[in-house]
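Example A, followed by Example B.
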Amino acid sequence: MTQADYLPVAIFALVALIFPFLAFFATRFFRPQKPEPQKARTYECGEVPVGEARIQFSFQYYIFALIFVVFDSVSIFVLLWALVLPGLDLVAKLYMMLFISVLFGVLVHALKKEETVNI
């Protein structure tokens, strides 16, 4: 393959790198500038806000969200691995079983911890 074959890929990569910055600055340039005190208020689905919006959340929710993200990404990894399963040898299958068993152990440990029991 020559360098000319990679020109569309290079152009696509350049556009992909430049577009977020261009979109960010374009929206800042074209948006209307109308500061109002109403815009600074907390929005609660049309209801009048009651009390302070800055409340302290329990750490349990963050742990639960982190566990969800980890296992969601792992499920994608395992799905891709399963698609090529017939072509894998025994060592690859043993490594995946080890990987899944470690993840299962981490899940059991996280659910047994005192911080995440009350979710």
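Example B, a separate protein, is given below in the same form.
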Amino acid sequence: MQTYNIHDAKTQLSRLVEQAANGEPFIIAKAGKPMVKVVCLDEPDPQPKKFKSRLGFLEGMYEVPEDFDTMFQKEIEEMFYGEE
């Protein structure tokens, strides 16, 4: 991405705006320090979403046992209350 000083950007503004409209953004700097980034308004967001919904991506790859709510109940009770 090109960087232009304010003075250069003022003298070439028409060309730079056309460049940005064609999908080539640029940066305007003041005394070498970047100040603004000029991009086309219709340009899609270049950063993809960080988190995509992954709900259901393991569907069909496992089965929940019928006794899921009571699995290992006897063993757990023995650990807490001792063997009877």
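On Example B: The CA atoms of residues 23 and 40 lie 6 Å apart.
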